[in-house]
Amino acid sequence: MFKILQILPKRPILKLFEPNCSHNVRTILSQAYYCEDVWNQRLSNPVLQKVNLDDLFYELDQRFNKTKQLNAIDIDVFANAIRDDSLCDELLDVVHKLRITADTCNTLESTSHAVVRVLLQSGKAEELINALDDRLNYGLFLDDYTANLLMDTFWKSKEYTHGARVASQLMLQEEVEHPLFCSFALLHCYNYLLNPTGWPEYAPPPEPEEEVKIRVKYLRNLYGDEHFDLRDGKKIVGKTLAIISKGKNDPLHQSFYVLGLALFGKPDLLRSFTSEVTKPLYKEVFALIPEESNVGEIINQLQTESIDLSNVLIENVKTAAQQTLESDITQQCDTFKKWESDRIQQLEAQKERLKTAKRLQSIEDINKALKEKEERLWFFENEETIDLAIESKVKYYPTRWFGPRRKPKEADASYVPPEVHTKQLG
């Protein structure tokens, strides 16, 4: 159970979601979409107000080192109680430690949202995206609302690579139904492909210098699922575009579907799809197809036209925002309230578990003390039984055999010891 102490905050509460970027570039979403006032209301909770973050982190670290166990509710309280950027590294550390414990399955949804907000307000976008990519070690997952906030912020800071990586997260989670997210994803992926740099490269492990042969029972065939095993940035962006645009009949999404299949390396699907296309598609999208993709013959068979693609994508995002803005804000405010009530319920449940464990330990200590007292009072009556119990606990180890005993050497009867003379000095 975390420790609660009354302290004053070290720094004033910072405004959330203010990345280090130029203020003359406007975000597409309004400030009302960020729901900062409702989000900051969590800090008025007495539990979060009384938490000493330094002491809580120390206690969590010591508990993990001793027992290798952490509670998901403690990590959620720690993440939501952070008010500044002084504990970002500690936050990622405890999130990672929770991930490798058994209680990771009970991680609260508000924990991931709090981690995203804290790292983004601290200007640690690179660390945030890397943690999102490393799902095995951190277990941070996005929802539609949080992904929209991230992509809107990255659009303002012109970090299109980060925006495309955020879009790929929901593609891997197969949650691409939200219209605003889909519009943002197309916008960021298009701008990333205009200048495809900054995507992390995953180098294969180096080959050993000396060939070492090991006998194994069987060989496992190499297999790639073309989903979680993807490492190439262009293939990931291609699959993101293909999944988002699949099944839509307007020229914009059909053009990006063709681009996605080309980047993903699916010429057969591309050939069957282009045979059914009747409308002219956009030339600016096809210009992003690399020459080494070998789909030029298929693309040349399509009718194309030119448009101002950047403005079309931005207007597409604005249209989707107008349709979903009010419903998203209302739903997210209700979600914040639900997270608050869930946190209180989890804390109460943890208190009950601790009380139960304390009572059980107290009963066990009393039983142990009574048993020791009974042994002292009835020692002479149960002396024989006690001796038998002690004897049963004695371990008898078998005698070790060191081989047949050697015969001692016989003394030589003709041996004459040397005479020793003392030398006189003087």
Automatic annotation (TrEMBL):
Chain segments carrying region Disordered: 406-426
Positions of transmembrane segments: none
Main location: mitochondrion
Coiled-coil segments on the chain, per record: 337-383
Superkingdom of this protein's organism: Eukaryota
GO cellular component, one term: mitochondrion
Alphabetical keyword list: Coiled coil
InterPro entries associated with the record: mS27/PTCD2, Ribosomal_mS27
Compartment annotation: Mitochondrion
Pfam family, one: MRP-S27
Protein name: 28S ribosomal protein S27, mitochondrial
The species this protein was found in: Dendroctonus ponderosae (Mountain pine beetle)
